[in-house]
Amino acid sequence: MADARASVRLAVDIGGTFTDIVLDADGQRTTAKVLTTPSAPEEGVIEGVESALSQAGLAASSLSLVLHGTTLATNAIIERKGAATAFVTTEGFRDVLEIGYESRFDQYDIMIEKPAPLVPRKLRLPVSERTDLAGRLLKPLDEAMVEALVPELEAGGIESVAIGYMHAYANPDHENRTRDLLAARLPNLSYSISAEVCPEIREYERFTTTVANAYVRPLMARYLARLRDRMAAMGVDCPVLLMTSGGGLTTLENAMQFPIRLVESGPAGGAILATKIAKEMQMDKVISFDMGGTTAKICLIGDYRPQTAREFEVDRAARFTKGSGMPLRIPVIEMVEIGAGGGSIARLDALNRITIGPDSAGADPGPAAYGRGGEKPTITDADVALGKIDPGSFAGGKVALYPEKSESAIMADVGTPLGVADVLTAAYGITEMVDETMSNAARVHAVEQGKAANQHSLIAFGGAAPLHAGRLAEKLGIDRIVVPTDAGVGSAVGFLEAPIAYEVVRSRNMRLAAFDPGTINELMDGMRAEAEAVIRAAVPSGDLIERRVAFMRYVGQGHEITVELPDGDFIDDHLDVVQQAFDCEYERHFRRTLPNAETEILTWSLSLSAQTPDPAPVADSVERSAAVAIGKRPVFGAKAAAMCAVPMYRRTDLALGARFDGPGIIVEDQTSTYVPQGFSARIAANGYIVLERNGESE
User: Fold this and answer.
1) pLDDT score for 340
2) Total structural domains in the chain?
């Protein structure tokens, strides 16, 4: 019984439109897709979990592990639906949140607007105190000023307090003392201090990250507590782990304390899945394409590792413009996210051009086709009108679709205003615009990384991605597409593949001329203990993989490069090792070094992860055979400018090696894959659908 329990895992992914569930029992997957319940997300989760358990014939007590990812924190920030938050900071620095970098993301726009700070100025409360960059005391904490904040916090109806002092990453004593003083008088409030949330240099990013954590913490803590209680009531008594933005997993308790680490947890699961697929299929250059109900996510994966970053922006004022959003300083898988999901709303702009998103119809009321009160046309409505979605089998037949409502919405908001009498032409215009938007985003993202999109393969998953991947590949010049099994719930599947991992980052400035092994070892020991405490809560035993890096630069430079650090305790001889590693990495980036310049380390990172075996490469040696269609369905053909009878195939009926030339549609419960003319489709030895270019496209 213990062995059986150890092999039963469940993954939950809450999206803006659907909540996806994947149950894995001894390698046998059961999936469920239910509409998200925005007002109480745990309700949709419980419904999906009960459905998956019922299908598998298992009791809730049989679960050994629950893995969870969600974009609730991101949505709360973007929609400004977080807690009433105050920010306590060093006197003279209350406006850092508003001043930012003192730069303009569009220097020629005199009417430029930046995202408003999460905390208004009247709730940014200064306190007299100061330490220097080494943590030395310059001005003691004025405890009377801290005590005087209590009436202001009570009068403002504050739920959460962020505390961020200058150079607290080097000496957190003042932040800790401030929290203790306030908590003694106001114990029911939530407190976030920068020394715990983001102990790094650069006060603007540290403050915005701490404030964002405080802003979403009450919401996320309440939700996670309700979910824990509901699952316990079902009989679930196993650990519940949360996917982090960096692609690792953390404990529920840690997630409740630092929910800002979850802001990109759902998309991170998709990137993890794409990385596994890349290893299986031996594709070293991959674009991950995750298109769900609300957004589309694109991530570059090179040498079987997704691109990562230490900072990203949320709530951008200009959709694709760097610098127009709020920076968050957390480990994150780097990707571009655009408002182009199945539920993204289509409309005409002031110049009578079709535009898509970024707003979404979501789950309630949803696209017009859902018949739940939605009146705005969406991408899903366009796909229904074009015949790419079968109304009778959408979401496994659990969500009824009404094509006539799709057509009415498309004509009312797009077709008639444009003077287009044909709903098919209007619907095709919508899909073309969203496909062009996504291809442009992928192209720009690749260029920013110094890559060429057409040199990559495309991995498509999410409920809407397999429908649009073919056209996206045509626009990008990509010759191969892979659609994995259970693609419609791909991010949730990715959670099952994610390593149990946690990363700790600390700023501690050290010039190599003053290299001190004892100080470094003490710092690493503390970081290791923090990471191991999180990991061991989920993995009590077994070997862990440790990775340590330093963020280094020449003294006087404004930005750092990432340098791998040697294993084991540091000794004096490691000075030359670290210097040589920096020189090599710097020369790789810039083709030169600065021999007479002094080098320094600003920030240190240590990550621990449980060992996970790499997937075995897929040997594509299965005998190929002709696929057998189960019928035909009318689908709009661009060249014919009319509906054409297109063969339809059921994925579960296709044997390994089965092949056909497009156009065609492969249907399954959670999604459908459209194979355009100019591409052939085959079933690989691992059951994945592989689309390969074979001629002229539509």
Assistant:
1) 80
2) 2
